[in-house]
Design brief:
The protein is mainly β and 425 residues long. It contains 5 helices and 21 strands.
Length: 425
């Protein structure tokens, strides 16, 4: 027998032995879930009872569970039944997922403003989202939401929401004047949600909206009407790539979220209010630093149909992009915003954690009717830096109370405090 024959027989025997020794997951047990249904978690899992043991798929299931709003942490363990069968045990630590919310801020008149909400992020024990909000920001606003990402299958779901937002909106003109309008938006939205895998998610649907602007105060240019409105039907969508891993207050990995809206049909004051296309992409990168540090970054790019109308969709605002800048102080048809911050856990005991953070927020805007060169020239550039604190309940989903103080490092000599629920990004 020649050498090649011996090698072939050896490989064949090893392959046959390996095949005969395949380990089977004979049983899957899930522990620690109190409100989340076991059947729901098993339906989400890649590993099924009777399947061949695959450590990569087990790791994927653990990560998938950690991404659920109802789960604070997850782990896995294998227990041997016999030489060919193992029991797979997933252990989850649940979040408390019925979350009241309260945001307090100043409105555009520098008066008291608030937003209160109540959401169940684990409705029916299946991580469906059900809830609503009421806000007072000069005027009254409210909204209702229901999302069931896994309603039809482990990959396919649906979302419905209705919002009635009434705000005082400042509109800015080239000659530095600004006019205040009462802005009313009534919108119904239906979305289909598809999760291709645990890293890639798609949403697409229809938004039916009525928007009105009614003049309140300010020196109004002759060519701008006091009252205007539009009825619009838009095709909306979102694509998310998510390679994030959560462990209580710590986040690690990369995420990209691209959201867009195409106007399919509109009637009314189209010349001033119609935005044929609005798109925004958030690129987020998080890195664990040692045992207690977390470096967080967000690059936000926005672009809308570049009309000359002053009713531009992207706002420069405390709560949205630049901490300390003030409430809606400018608008544009394109924007580039970069936020970076370092978070460090300074106190942790049981369910409670406190983080201190240092941040830098920078952004630049394209004026209505301008060109993308405006973003590079920097006439509308803004740069702020500051410090903040985070008070965190580790066992309640998104239970983070934040306070940040930002100071201008550029031409604007202003500063300010920003409160909120949840991390800034």
């Amino acid at each position: 027998m020649n050498q090649k024959s011996v090698v072939f027989i050896l490989i064949f025997c090893l392959g046959f032995w390996g095949y005969s020794q395949e380990i089977i997951v004979s049983e899957i047990i899930i522990k620690g879930n109190k409100r989340t249904r076991t059947s729901f978690l098993k339906r989400l899992a890649f590993v099924k009872e009777g399947s061949i043991l695959d450590s990569a798929r087990i790791a994927s299931d653990v990560r998938r569970f950690k991404l659920l709003p109802s789960v604070a942490s997850a782990s896995s363990k294998l227990e041997k039944v016999d030489d060919e069968n193992y029991t797979l045990i997933y252990t989850v630590v649940e979040n408390f997922a019925i979350i009241p919310g309260l945001n307090v801020s100043q409105d555009n008149n520098d008066d008291f403003a608030f937003r209160t909400s109540l959401f169940d992020f684990n409705f029916l024990g299946q991580n469906q989202i059900l809830g609503g909000f009421y806000a007072r920001n000069v005027f009254d606003s409210y909204g209702f939401y229901w999302e069931a990402p896994n309603l039809f299958t482990r990959k396919l779901g649906v979302g419905i929401n209705y919002q009635n937002n009434v705000l005082q909106e400042p509109i800015f003109f080239e000659d530095e004047r600004d006019v205040k309008y009462k802005y009313t938006s009534r919108a119904f939205e239906l979305r289909l949600m598809y999760e291709h895998n645990f890293k890639n998610r798609l949403e697409f649907g229809i938004n039916i909206a009525n928007e009105d602007y009614n003049y309140l105060s300010g020196e109004l240019p002759e060519e701008i009407p006091e009252n205007l409105g539009v009825d619009r039907v838009s095709f909306i969508g979102e694509y998310e790539y998510n390679n994030i891993t959560n462990e209580y207050q710590y986040v690690d990995g990369f995420r990209s979220i691209f959201a867009y809206s195409f106007t399919l049909n509109s009637s009314g004051d189209n010349e001033l209010l119609r935005n044929f296309f609005i798109g925004r992409n958030d690129f987020e990168y998080f890195k664990r630093i040692g045992n207690k540090g977390n470096w967080a970054n967000r690059l936000r790019l926005g672009y809308a149909t570049n009309a000359t109308t002053p009713f531009a969709p992207f706002a420069l605002d405390n709560q949205l992009n630049i901490r300390g800048v003030g409430n809606t102080i400018d608008r544009g048809t394109a924007s580039v915003v970069f936020n970076t911050e370092y978070r460090h856990t300074v106190l942790e005991k049981g369910w409670f954690a406190m983080q201190a953070n240092a941040f830098v927020d920078a952004g630049t805007w394209q004026e209505p009717g301008g060109n993308l060169g405006d973003l590079i020239e920097g006439e509308k550039a803004t740069l702020f830096s500051g410090l903040g604190l985070r008070f965190i309940h580790k066992r309640i989903f998104n239970a983070v109370f934040r306070i940040d103080y930002g100071i201008s490092l550029g031409k604007k000599a202003n500063n300010g405090i920003v409160f909120g629920i949840g991390q800034y990004f």
